[in-house]
Amino acid sequence: MTDATAAVLDVHERPSPALWGLLSLQHLFAMFGATVLVPLLTGLDPSVALATSGLGTLLFILLTKGRNPAYLGSSFAYIAPILAAAALPGPDGQPLGPTGAMLGAFLAGAVYLAVAACIKGFGVGWLLKLLPPVVTGPVIVVIGLGLAPVAVNMAFNEPGTGVYSGQHLLVAAATLGLALLFAIVLRGIFSVVPILLAVLGGYVVAAIVGLVPWGGEAGMAAKLAAAPFVEMPNFAIPFVTYDLPWAQAGAIVLLLVPVALVTIAEHIGDQMVISRVIGRNTLVDPGLHRSLAGDGLATMLAAFLGGPPNTTYGENVGVLAITRIFSIYVIGGAAVLALLLAFLGDFRVALQSIPVPVIGGVAIALFGVIAASGLRTLIEGKVDLGDKRNLLIVSIILVLGIGGAVVHVGAVAQLSGTALAAIVGVVLNAVLPHSREEA
Fold first, then answer.
1. What rounded mean pLDDT belongs to the chain?
2. Dihedrals phi, psi of 7, to nearest 5 degrees
3. Which Gene Ontology terms cover its molecular function (predicted)?
4. Strand pairing report for 406-409 and 413-416
5. Which phi and psi (to 5°) does residue 432 adopt?
6. CA 198 to the chain's CA centroid
7. Biggest alpha carbon distance in the chain?
8. What pLDDT shows up at residue 29?
9. Angle separating helix axes 356-380 and 148-156, nearest 10 degrees
10. Contacts from 271-275 at CB under 8 Å and sequence distance 24+?
């Protein structure tokens, strides 16, 4: 592991007040682009996502006793299941909308708590056997490639029509080009925010070609002037702002809850990386059971307020590695800044004005990176695809996941392709023999 003495600020060290805000702002920038992109893709409120990201991180810090410098943001793994759940018909025959997915997201967080309790009682070995790289790797590939049509449609087509638009393609291509350029060229702390910078650049291009109108009563200038300085985010609290869709509960659970198996495996991977970076084993102290419980409760809180499920963020682990600043006070400061930002009315107007092709451009890069990270999991896990057993497991997961966006189970229940792939992968890994002798 990395020598902790190399830290500029160790986990329990507090920076000076003047430096504290700047360092926290740095972490906020690292998580901002991806955290806001998820609600923009799923129809949830970006301000709520920022608020639940900040609250979830503070809750995580509390649960891990201030010993784990991880930041929590919106999880990409749940995008496709949320979209599928939002399309389910409600009592009035109309789609439930994204709030319909909150029940499943809440229960997905509960899965974290159950796994955390099992780890506390029985250790982590059983979970690693249940979710080896031969299962998690191809499922992560499925998550990325399964979202590919969403990104391409947003980049190429007129929103809501499905009709090709050269203007939208131009903006998406410019945004994607900037993301690639920034990711390769930028160094230092700027290297962890290429997506945020690409969105800003794409926004400028969109404004130039007329996709962001500024003048007139419906222009951005008028909207910004009319927006209150402080405004409550559009929290969607069960039984208060919407009714929980109990009639579709089974379908929603099948769409979202199995994805928790994949995100739990990602959580373990993130904790291993954080341990190497900060020079102390977070799997032992404060313990994997505590970090999983913190992640799960953060997801449940986000679902209760109408935000996307939370997850530990690799972008912020990158900031830790680059800056050598591990202070939990800096992470907590970033969470407070995210929470405060969610209540700014002008900021919400600006977020909601980001054109769809700008999001589509960065989505092409991000979803591809997700798929590539699945391949990386297979490589780092030394999965031998020359072994027929491994080859069959990976092949079946890929076909089921990519081919079955939504699978109907009975008359009402539905299962996302990702969830189906994860379940089948776990089962195949458990029952298929490793050798002819074992069979």
1. 85
2. -70, 135
3. xanthine transmembrane transporter activity
4. antiparallel
5. -75, 130
6. 18
7. 76
8. 76
9. 150
10. 271/68, 271/70, 271/312, 273/314, 273/317, 274/68, 274/69, 274/70, 274/312, 274/317, 274/320, 275/1
Residue 49, class by beta-carbon neighbours within 10 Å (0-12 exposed, 13-18 middle, 19+ buried)? buried
Do residues 339 and 52 lie in contact, with contact meaning Cβ atoms separated by under 8 Å? no
- Encoding tokens for residue 69? 């410098």
The sign of the dihedral angle between the CA atoms of 365, 178, 72, 286 is positive
Alpha carbon distance 129, 430 (integer Å)? 9
pLDDT digits (tens, 9 = 90+) for 407-420: 655 544 556 678 88
Rounded-to-integer distance, Cα 38 and Cα 349, Å: 17
Do 425 and 432 form a contact (C-beta atoms < 8 A)?
A: no
Q: Residue 267 and residue 64: Cα distance in Å, rounded?
A: 14
CA distances to 121, 427, 434 from 438, in Å: 30, 17, 6
Task: List the structure tokens of 397.
Answer: 């997961």
Whether the upstream peptide bond of residue 98 has omega within 30° of 0, thus cis, is no
**pLDDT tens, residue by residue, 317-339:** 877 887 788 999 999 999 999 99
Give the C-alpha separation, 385 to 439, whole Å. Answer: 19
Check: CB of residue 52 under 8 Å from CB of residue 301.
yes
Task: Give CA separation, 18 vs 14, 22, 28, 29, 330, in Å.
Answer: 11, 7, 16, 18, 12
Give the span between the Cα atoms of 323 and 363, in whole angstroms.
27
Q: Which residue has tokens 């087509």?
A: 157
Residues 338-371: tens digit of each pLDDT? 999 999 888 888 877 888 899 888 888 878 887 8
Between CA 248 and CA 104 the distance in angstroms is 10
